[in-house]
Design goal:
Chain lengths: ~120, ~110
């Protein structure tokens, strides 16, 4: 089946540093990828929709300058948390859309960010 | 705005029993629904989906039921096993955007 790889799975950083998380579709091309944030015992919250070759679409309340998204190729999207602070600590998950319209969505394994 | 809603209960079942997880949605325009399973520290995994032109769809040990009249979705797991323990999310598709419900934690007692 289709696989989406997310890296790193865990990262610990100091406050004020920037962290990049990668999301790769390994065996299919994904023109659309999604980034979610998940707090403990809560559902996934969509942060932004990433479209290859164009600017990401951010959900209301998500700072685009804080969470930089780059979808430079059909198999890679990156999320950079800039100047991270402890409140940015969370579980970040990406997903990649296979095919158009209501094509199947495949999720990465998630990245646990801890900001000290 | 409209949303898929699911309070976050915990469902505890005995191994071997059937499990039923429920979900209410509010966007009547949604025409595609998915159930995901999420184990601790991992991303969601696709379980089963259903389109709005169907009322029922069966997979291996899982069945999804859709009642469009009352905007209700359910996931039935037959002969629940310890490996089924996880958080289950329903989700609806609106265009290219997937909106998740709140999740239900399923605990299987041996």
């Amino acid at each position: 089946g289709a696989v989406v790889s997310q890296h790193p799975s865990r990262v610990i950083c100091k406050s004020g540093t920037s962290v990049k998380i990668e999301c790769r579709s390994l065996d299919f091309q994904a023109t659309t990828m999604f980034w979610y944030r998940q707090f403990p015992k809560q559902s996934l919250m969509l942060m932004a929709t990433s479209n290859e070759g164009s600017k990401a679409t951010y959900e209301q309340g998500v700072e685009k300058d804080k969470f930089l998204i780059n979808h430079a190729s059909l198999t890679l999207s990156t999320l950079t948390v800039t100047s991270a602070h402890p409140e940015d600590s969370s579980f970040y998950i990406c997903s990649a859309l296979k095919g158009g319209g209501t094509g199947e969505l495949f999720f990465g394994e998630g990245s646990r960010l801890t900001v000290l | 705005g409209e949303s898929v809603g699911l309070h976050l209960p915990t469902l505890s079942v005995q191994e071997g029993d059937n499990s039923i997880i429920n979900c209410a949605y509010s966007n009547s325009a949604s025409d595609y629904f998915i159930w995901y399973k999420q184990e601790s520290g991992k991303g969601p995994q696709f379980i089963i989906d259903i389109r709005s032109n169907m009322d029922k769809r069966q997979g291996q040990r899982v069945t999804v039921l859709l009642n469009k009249t009352v905007k209700h979705l359910s996931l039935q797991i037959a002969a629940t096993q310890p490996g089924d323990s996880a958080v289950y999310f329903c989700a609806e598709y609106a265009g290219n955007m997937l909106t998740f419900g709140g999740g239900t934690r399923l605990m299987v007692k041996p």
